[in-house]
Amino acid sequence: MESESKRKKESPNTAELAVTASFPDEVLEIVLSLLTSHRDRSSVSLVCKDWYRAERWSRTQVFIGNCYSVSPEILTRRFPNIRSVTLKGKPRFSDFNLVPPNWGADIHAWLVAFAAKYPFLEELRLKRMAVSDESLEFLASNFPNFKLLSLLSCDGFSTDGLAAIATHCKNLTELDIQENGIEDSSGSWLSCFPESFTSLEVLNFANLTSEVNTDALERLVSRCKSLKVLKVNKSISLEQLQRLLVRAPQLEELGTGSFLQDLTARPYADLESAFNNCKNIHTLSGLWEAVPLYLPALYNSCANLTFLNLSYTALQSGEFAKLVVHCPRLRRLWVLDTVEDKGLEAVGSNCPLLEELRVFPADPFDEEIIHGVTEEGFVAVSFGCRRLHYVLYFCRQMTNAAVATIVQNCPNFTHFRLCIMTPGLPDYLTNEPMDEAFGAVVKTCSKLQRLSVSGLLTDLTFEYIGKYAKNLETLSVAFAGRSDRGMQCVLEGCPKLRKLEIRDCPFGNEALLSGLEKYESMRSLWMSACNVTMNACRRLAKQMPRLNVEVMKEDGSDDSQADKVYIYRTVAGPRRDAPPSVLTL
Amino acid sequence: MSTTPLEHDYIGLSESSSVPRSSDKLSYSSSSSSCTEENYTSSNKACLNFKETELRLGLPGSQSPGRKPSHGLSLFGKDIENNNSNSNSNNTNGYAAPSPLKSLVSGAKRGFSDALDGVSRNWGLSINGKPDAELGKGAVLYSPRGGLDDKCKIMKEVDVLPLSPKPVQEKKNQVPALNENEPTSAPAAKAQVVGWPPIRSFRKNTMASNLVKNNDAAEGKSGSGCLYVKVSMDGAPYLRKVDLKIYSNYMELSSALEKMFSCFTIGQCDSHGLPGQDGLSESRLMDLLHGSEYVLTYEDKDGDWMLVGDVPWDMFTETCRRLRIMKGSEAIGLAPRAMEKCKNRT
């Protein structure tokens, strides 16, 4: 590869001839079409012009991590044959209400461009985009081959939009609606799937609230023989679930509805046998309002479970422990902290294959009630689950020693997201900052890609991160650090850093400007409630024309302060659709 | 920005903190802040506790760090297993025996908020695992609320059934006062910090609504661990006993009873009536009376036989002495009144 490009530099004509003679474009395209990784494709496209050309013609999937880093025109110009698009829009902190409404990331302009250039578009995966009903209707009407729609954490649409999709997308295989700001006016959208429609393989409407027509759902499930993933919402009762399961024994992923019901009409045994009949279920979620009474119906199904999502089910430790005993093959587990340390100990004892653990707080805003998990639960899991590499852990207390033990047991962490819910809380035993905890994480876990820190942290934490976290790509920081030096250490030290999001830290202009060159190699930087001024942002914007520097002003704040700053690299230039509260410098 | 350590800034006490409060307070999940206050006043309850007979209760500021006695030993370097129902202890996690040290840690949690108020910024005073020397300090910090400790040791082992409503009330009275004294106490401050902890709105709202529901159910509950009542069924050869504490609404009780007595029950009921929070829906009652031969009744504290479902669940659990699954024919006399009540409610 390299020798060819070298030859090309010396004598372009001979090199071109050589390449054309030995490797026709068509062959190259076929070979490259086997490449699926986006990073590999990016590398390939940089080799030489021929390879760039071949790559762009053969590419069918594109992933755009920041919808403003490129424009629809640029995208469609470069890649003529795209069938699958993944787009991410708003900065991640928009999930936590830190981004003003109408910020942007509207999908419509993209859809218009796709309708012209990619009429055979099949898949669209959107995260944190603004999606309107009109856009969904447009999508449903303009892409006859459309197969897959996945909306995660989007907003701006209602169930009417879903109705349009159900009505018009004759080839739909996947409809995945997750955790969106959706206006859920009625469940009638589900009834819009025509009786002739049979291609559905994935249906996830777990996060909608309106009741759907259960007869329509039953009929839909019956005729879609390839249905593999079914995640229903809370309105579906146990009795209805049983009827669905009986019609779809081939299911692989199941999200139940409400698990709390008066089972007078249908005996419990029917439910159990329906579950037993679904021998392929490896993912289980839902279980809204589960009462321990009916959980044993699941026990047999749990034997093959690899992913159990109980994050909307408030189970206590005892009943959870009884359940988890039946899940020896579990690889991913999401729970609420109502299971407490004891529940996590049961996980450690029963799930040796566990790779991912997420513990969400059932009641994050109350400090007074004794609830939740502590460092002990986490430590217990680390002793039992040595393959653990992804953790998201919300707790109210932690110690440096515990974290050191945890990473010693599990040195393969790729994602370590620890949220000690009280900001600025020190090690509750030693009273010291949590610097050593995260120091241990970065020193021990050389494969670490994503880190979220919390607790009382000085600049030392960031010195450690800059020094040791050589594979770190995403870092989230809140209420931490002492001075600009902290942020500087990270910017200078982490070569693979792509996303840095900071809130409520004492980092100022010096820190911001120290990363001048760095930001072009990153996807984005978010800084809010720090000490950055408008002037510094202007200076940054001036010096780095290929960065978009956007400032979101709060009402009534000091004019010179840049309350929220969002900086990202782009080839599309400054955006023109920003609302008045967002200033593009 | 002041050079004070950040641990004091997050609450927004620092003037330079630019975390906006006014507008964002509104946009911030209001359900959660109302939830917070509700929890605060009834924080005696383990609100998501369905079945466990172990109640996890606690006072404001109480927390149970380590649960296992063995861990407790290493953490505190002192044998804590012997400390039971100490007058200062309020650790009620139901796992390990509570210890005064643990209560100090928890009491010290209160001290953390105190510290932020400017009483003391010395971390040493607030959270400290070292015993003896700090014991005195911790106790001093906690003493203004010492009264609470004594009255609120509501634990599984202790039979305080007749007394318990009182402490709950006292606590209810005291807790808002606490709140007033500390305008920047932790719960109120939490409501001001937008987007923290970092949980998506959907999840936040779902959990908040679950919590409110459970709190409604939990409020008014007595503090004892279990409440077994006899259940008799006309025609059955023997009686059963159920623990009313493990259910949080009539639906759960009803389904449990049907499971229990399924071998005797003849009638089948449709379950398309959506149950209300506080009692049986009209259709459910109709089912019971018309579709089934049996009716669920209970004897209350006054010795009267009442139809199950009239009063809110919590009132029911407090007044119910025993249950009787009565033949429908005998219950006819109760029907009109009950139906009227249902109609009024729905």
TrEMBL record, chain A:
GO terms for biological process: auxin-activated signaling pathway; pollen maturation; SCF-dependent proteasomal ubiquitin-dependent protein catabolic process. GO terms for molecular function: auxin binding. Its main location: nucleus. It is found in: Nucleus. Residues 22-60 form the COI1 F-box domain. Residues 80-126 form the Transport inhibitor response domain. This is F-box domain-containing protein.
UniProtKB/TrEMBL annotation, chain B:
It comes from Citrus sinensis (Sweet orange). This is Auxin-responsive protein IAA8. It comes from the Eukaryota.
